[in-house]
Write a sequence for this structure.
């Protein structure tokens, strides 16, 4: 059994997509990031970056103690290796999936995240910051659109790279992007959106998604973090 520490955000959806694709048993433990659950000592013990998602695998392949994994990219790699799915075995295919997974982790995710922050949450409208991240998101969409020319999926066959990227394209309107200007990306997006496992994965978040958007209190908690707030929680 896999325990999934989760909240219905793009990084959380990546993991429910994988688990739904496989149809294996897993249990969700909600981590309400607006209420500060990510600072609870029992969560920090295995997710030391005070971020979700994280997993605990109670039946690791070596038969030993439960294994914990934090960071969504590391979780996808761990699960793909454990179940032998969505990550090719050959050196070239594996390299390509890893490239696009890292592209999402180091590029699309952080840039689109800053885009969300400065266009929707920042108390001041800062044109330089908004332009910077909206433009960088736009550039990354262009890279992805080019990559998808003549390909069904990012790395050829459906893989953990698609699972990592898709949830960060879902909020394309919030990111001020027009999918009609990226025809290959739009075709891929519609294919992904229609996958039954993707539909089921998003439905898994419904019990919590209906809660109000981030409150003022939640914003203070999420956007005012320093090393000190982290250290205090870990003590
Ligand atoms: N690089 C991390 C990022 C995870 C992340 O940023 N999670 C956010 C929600 S999408 C979170 O837990 N935020 C809590 C906070 O900011 O305190 C990953 O991919 O797992």
């Amino acid at each position: 059994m896999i325990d999934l520490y989760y909240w219905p955000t793009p990084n959380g959806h990546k993991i429910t997509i994988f688990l739904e694709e496989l149809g294996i048993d897993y249990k969700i433990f909600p981590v309400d990031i607006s209420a500060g659950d990510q600072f609870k000592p029992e969560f920090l013990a295995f997710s030391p970056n005070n971020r979700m998602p994280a997993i605990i695998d109670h039946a690791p392949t070596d038969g030993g103690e439960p294994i914990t994994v934090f960071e969504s990219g590391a979780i996808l790699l761990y699960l793909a290796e454990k179940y032998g799915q969505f990550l090719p075995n050959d050196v070239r295919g594996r390299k390509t999936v890893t490239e696009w997974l890292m592209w999402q982790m180091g590029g699309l995710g952080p840039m689109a995240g800053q885009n969300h922050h400065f266009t929707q949450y920042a108390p001041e409208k800062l044109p330089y910051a908004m332009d910077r991240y909206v433009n960088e998101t736009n550039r990354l969409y262009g890279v992805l659109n080019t990559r998808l020319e003549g390909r069904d999926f990012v790395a050829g066959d459906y893989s953990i790279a698609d699972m990592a990227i898709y949830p960060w394209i879902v909020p394309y309107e919030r990111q001020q992007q027009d999918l009609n200007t990226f025809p290959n990306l739009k075709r891929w997006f519609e294919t992904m959106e229609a996958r039954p496992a993707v539909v089921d994965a998003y439905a898994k978040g419904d019990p919590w998604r209906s809660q109000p958007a981030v409150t003022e209190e939640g914003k203070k908690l999420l956007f005012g973090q320093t090393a000190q707030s982290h250290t205090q929680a870990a003590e």
